[in-house]
Amino acid sequence: MRGQLDQIARTGSAKDGTSKGEYSILSGTGTYANATGTGTIESAPNPFKGVSLLNIKLVIKTAGS
Description:
Helix content is 0%, strand content 65%. By secondary structure, the chain is mainly β. It is elongated and about 40 Å long.
């Protein structure tokens, strides 16, 4: 299974070291051909300096799903 999500629109913000946003999946190729969907991204608790940890949730709909 090979493919990629080609067109993803994102909105959001980064403030005071935290990030939060939303994704809209518009299309893909291969396994993800004609994919659509939504998602969210937000900063996760992080014990490490100089590293960003993120919680990312994507709900991807493909042909046959």
